[in-house]
Amino acid sequence: MRGLISILFMPGSILRVRILLIAFVSQFFLLGCTRHETLVISGNLEDPNQGIPVGGATVELWTQRIEAGIFRANYDLAGTRITDTGGRFSFEMDYRNYTGLKLNFAKAGYYGWTLELNTEEVKSEGGIDARYQILPKAVLQIHVLNAQPVNEQDYFEFRLLNGFTSCEVCCKSEMYQFSGMNIDQEVLCQIIGHQDILIRWSKRKNDEQVFRTDTFFIKAFDTTRIELIY
């Protein structure tokens, strides 16, 4: 009771400071002990090349965690969503001791890919809401022809300078080389669509050497045919 009486009869300014200090310390400890009961992982999926949302895409959430004190190295599928017409998706799940979180994006006609999230940041913030991108596929068909007159000394080479990505059938950044008279060949490969690509080429023919770089537009979800005749 003495403590209570001494506080009640303190000067007003000192009393207010002490009350504010107690409230601040209480709030600090409450925040420090707060743990989010649920995590919400959401976002919008977009095609940056065409500048459009990607609806109808499959989004998978994969999780890795510690369970009953045991670290589970394998990732488990926690859920699957289909993006709406605006490219929107959302997962809501109970909080667990997650050590890894991944999103997998896929849709026909697009390059699927997997994104590893910052797990600690997601847990501390109670989730994440972000914009994600997926790139459209296209096919590039390049026809190389040595036109008449021809001789054994004729030489042609070309290289793509951009637009390629990593996949087994994708276009490469390597140099394609052709020499001799009877050149009538095609290069067929997959590439990122709805963009300009640069092709640098050179030829040596009839004692003439030519170097050049040309620009071609690659339409998404389609085959673009390019004729390289020398």
Along the chain, the helix and strand elements come as: HHEEEEEEEHEEEEEEEE
Overall CATH architecture of the largest domain: Sandwich
Structural class: alpha+beta
What overall form do the CA principal axes indicate? elongated
Number of helices: 3
What is the typical, i.e. mean, pLDDT? 87
Counting structural domains, the number is: 3
**CATH domain class of the largest domain:** Mainly Beta
What does this structure look like?
The structure is a single chain. This protein is an alpha+beta fold and 230 residues long. It has three domains: 2-32, no CATH class; 35-133, Immunoglobulin-like (Sandwich), CATH 2.60.40; 137-229, Immunoglobulin-like (Sandwich), CATH 2.60.40. The chain has helices at residues 2-8, 12-33, 119-125, and strands at residues 38-47, 52-53, 58-67, 70-82, 88-94, 98-106, 113-116, 127-133, 137-145, 155-160, 176-179, 184-192, 195-205, 208-218, 223-229. Strands 1, 2, 5 and 8 form a four-stranded mixed β-sheet that branches. Strand 6 and strand 7 (113-116) form a beta hairpin. The longest helix is centred in the first third of the chain and has 22 residues, at 12-33.
